[in-house]
Amino acid sequence: MQVLITGGTGFLGKRLALKLRSQGDTVTVLGRNPSIGQQLEAAGLRFVAADLRDAPAIAAACRDQDCVFHCGALSAPWGDSREFYDINVLGTRHVAQGCLAHGVPRLVHVSTSAVYFTYADQLQIPESLPLPKPISPYAKTKQLAEQEIQTAYQQGLSVLTLRPRGIFGPGDTTILPRLLRASDRTGIPLIRQGKAVLDITYIDNVVHALQCCQQAPDSLSGRVYNITNGEPRSLRVLLEQLSQRLGAALQFKPMSFPLAYGLAAALEGAALFSRSEPILTRYTVGLLTFSQTLAIQAAITDLGYRPPITLEQGLTQFAHWWQETGKEKAA
Description:
Order of helices and strands: EHEHEHEHEEHEEHEEEHEEHEHHEHH
Radius of gyration: 19 Å
Strand order of the largest sheet: 3-2-1-4-5-7-12
CATH architecture of the domain at 2-167 and 201-230 and 294-309: 3-Layer(aba) Sandwich
Strand content: 15-25%
Low-confidence stretches: none
Number of strands: 15
């Protein structure tokens, strides 16, 4: 099968690309990191250096593909609103229109659980929940990107959308590494005693879900599915489990939500002048404060999704990678 993966040099896209190649697919990865692109080419994949904002390049890459996985996005807790829009919204439009123009049989779109986020506890969120007013440029543009996907579906494109929650694993540079760096520097902000209940998802489980979408019948086209490990944990318990596997105590910094939120707002204000990402954002504070778990029964029933890696196994594999190479790369 001929497969295109946008964001193919990123955390999720690279993992998916290597898995599909190992199973015999002819894989083209589209991305902006030439060094990783060269590594993938050495592994037998085709690399296309292109930006999601380049509509002609995206359309050309979609030609003759049997399936396109749209993993590419600007994913960050803070940044320029225009850049988020251009990459996440216009980029998704370019991918969807490229698929329509070249008659691609299936587009699998990677969205995010951030589209649900609000400053309140939310447990077992169903896909049918009306989306709230977005609280960050990332969440806003991912909501708009889903609208682009639905427009393409109405125009005849077979498409499925996944909303994974908190992807982690070897090669992760965001969720767990940021917490570990915070532990080393100032201590991990511990709000409400770390009682927020969270879902996270091991990367190979997301890859499994993407392959389920690739193989799903057209009768499921247009649908959206939550994806997690299905093993919620409180933030404190999750970090303690990680600490045990690392063989090192993590440092915490207890604080109230108002204090943490105010500090994050001040850091964001200062970052407007420095143009560098603040070490703490209001969105991050919200993620550490409020519970958010997703219902995944629809993916289990419709797609046959069965997470192959447990949370404990995933934490063990992440900890091994972090101790071997991850910590050094993150330094």
